[in-house]
Amino acid sequence: MIAAAAHALVTGRKVAGLYDHAAGRHLRVAAEARGRHLQGYDGDRDARFGGTLPELHDMGTKTAVHMVVEGSETRGYDRGSCGHFTARVTEGLVQLYDHDLGTWFAFDVQVA
To answer: What is the mean pLDDT of residues 3-18?
Structure first.
Protein backbone atom coordinates (compact mmCIF):
# COMPACT_ATOMS: atom_id res chain seq x y z
CA MET A 1 0.00 0.00 0.00
CA ILE A 2 2.72 2.48 0.94
CA ALA A 3 4.70 1.94 -2.27
CA ALA A 4 1.62 2.36 -4.49
CA ALA A 5 0.45 5.43 -2.57
CA ALA A 6 3.90 7.03 -2.69
CA HIS A 7 4.21 6.54 -6.44
CA ALA A 8 0.73 7.88 -7.20
CA LEU A 9 1.18 10.92 -4.95
CA VAL A 10 4.67 11.84 -6.19
CA THR A 11 4.16 11.25 -9.93
CA GLY A 12 0.43 11.92 -10.29
CA ARG A 13 0.15 8.74 -12.39
CA LYS A 14 -2.26 5.87 -11.77
CA VAL A 15 -0.67 2.73 -10.36
CA ALA A 16 -2.06 -0.46 -11.90
CA GLY A 17 0.19 -2.98 -10.15
CA LEU A 18 3.51 -3.57 -8.43
CA TYR A 19 6.23 -6.19 -8.62
CA ASP A 20 7.72 -6.88 -5.19
CA HIS A 21 11.36 -7.88 -5.67
CA ALA A 22 11.77 -9.20 -2.10
CA ALA A 23 8.75 -11.49 -2.42
CA GLY A 24 9.43 -12.28 -6.08
CA ARG A 25 5.83 -11.75 -7.13
CA HIS A 26 3.34 -9.35 -8.66
CA LEU A 27 0.98 -7.53 -6.31
CA ARG A 28 -2.58 -6.66 -7.35
CA VAL A 29 -2.70 -3.10 -6.10
CA ALA A 30 -4.00 0.09 -7.70
CA ALA A 31 -3.78 3.72 -6.59
CA GLU A 32 -4.77 7.10 -7.97
CA ALA A 33 -4.00 10.55 -6.57
CA ARG A 34 -5.61 13.90 -7.22
CA GLY A 35 -3.58 16.52 -5.46
CA ARG A 36 -3.39 15.50 -1.81
CA HIS A 37 -6.27 13.01 -2.07
CA LEU A 38 -5.59 9.32 -2.71
CA GLN A 39 -7.78 6.32 -3.36
CA GLY A 40 -6.55 2.78 -3.82
CA TYR A 41 -7.39 -0.88 -3.72
CA ASP A 42 -5.28 -3.86 -2.66
CA GLY A 43 -6.68 -6.84 -4.56
CA ASP A 44 -4.51 -9.36 -2.71
CA ARG A 45 -6.09 -8.33 0.60
CA ASP A 46 -9.46 -7.21 -0.82
CA ALA A 47 -9.02 -3.91 0.99
CA ARG A 48 -9.46 -0.26 0.07
CA PHE A 49 -7.09 2.47 1.21
CA GLY A 50 -6.91 6.21 0.82
CA GLY A 51 -7.61 9.58 2.31
CA THR A 52 -6.18 13.06 2.26
CA LEU A 53 -2.56 13.73 3.17
CA PRO A 54 -1.06 13.55 5.65
CA GLU A 55 -3.41 10.77 6.88
CA LEU A 56 -4.17 7.73 4.72
CA HIS A 57 -6.42 4.96 5.99
CA ASP A 58 -6.07 1.22 5.35
CA MET A 59 -9.56 -0.28 5.53
CA GLY A 60 -8.11 -3.81 5.61
CA THR A 61 -6.16 -3.35 8.83
CA LYS A 62 -8.30 -0.45 10.09
CA THR A 63 -5.15 1.58 10.74
CA ALA A 64 -3.68 4.78 9.36
CA VAL A 65 -0.46 5.84 7.71
CA HIS A 66 0.93 9.32 8.22
CA MET A 67 2.70 10.35 4.98
CA VAL A 68 4.40 13.56 3.86
CA VAL A 69 5.56 14.17 0.28
CA GLU A 70 8.92 15.92 -0.09
CA GLY A 71 9.87 16.20 -3.77
CA SER A 72 10.46 12.70 -5.10
CA GLU A 73 10.34 11.13 -1.63
CA THR A 74 7.71 10.38 0.95
CA ARG A 75 8.32 9.92 4.64
CA GLY A 76 6.01 8.71 7.29
CA TYR A 77 4.82 6.44 10.01
CA ASP A 78 2.72 3.30 9.63
CA ARG A 79 0.48 3.05 12.67
CA GLY A 80 -0.33 -0.59 11.84
CA SER A 81 3.26 -1.82 12.07
CA CYS A 82 4.39 1.02 14.36
CA GLY A 83 7.27 1.78 12.01
CA HIS A 84 8.80 4.72 10.17
CA PHE A 85 9.51 4.58 6.44
CA THR A 86 11.03 6.55 3.58
CA ALA A 87 10.04 5.92 -0.04
CA ARG A 88 12.14 7.13 -2.98
CA VAL A 89 10.12 7.36 -6.17
CA THR A 90 11.27 7.33 -9.78
CA GLU A 91 9.19 6.88 -12.93
CA GLY A 92 8.99 3.10 -12.73
CA LEU A 93 10.38 2.19 -9.32
CA VAL A 94 9.73 2.74 -5.63
CA GLN A 95 12.50 2.04 -3.16
CA LEU A 96 11.03 1.71 0.33
CA TYR A 97 13.23 1.89 3.43
CA ASP A 98 11.85 0.39 6.65
CA HIS A 99 13.67 2.26 9.43
CA ASP A 100 12.84 -0.33 12.09
CA LEU A 101 14.18 -3.24 10.03
CA GLY A 102 17.01 -1.19 8.51
CA THR A 103 16.11 -2.73 5.14
CA TRP A 104 15.38 -1.46 1.62
CA PHE A 105 12.59 -2.98 -0.48
CA ALA A 106 12.16 -2.41 -4.22
CA PHE A 107 8.91 -2.35 -6.22
CA ASP A 108 8.62 -2.03 -9.99
CA VAL A 109 5.54 0.01 -10.85
CA GLN A 110 3.04 -0.74 -13.61
CA VAL A 111 1.19 2.45 -14.54
CA ALA A 112 -2.26 2.60 -16.10
So the answer is: 98
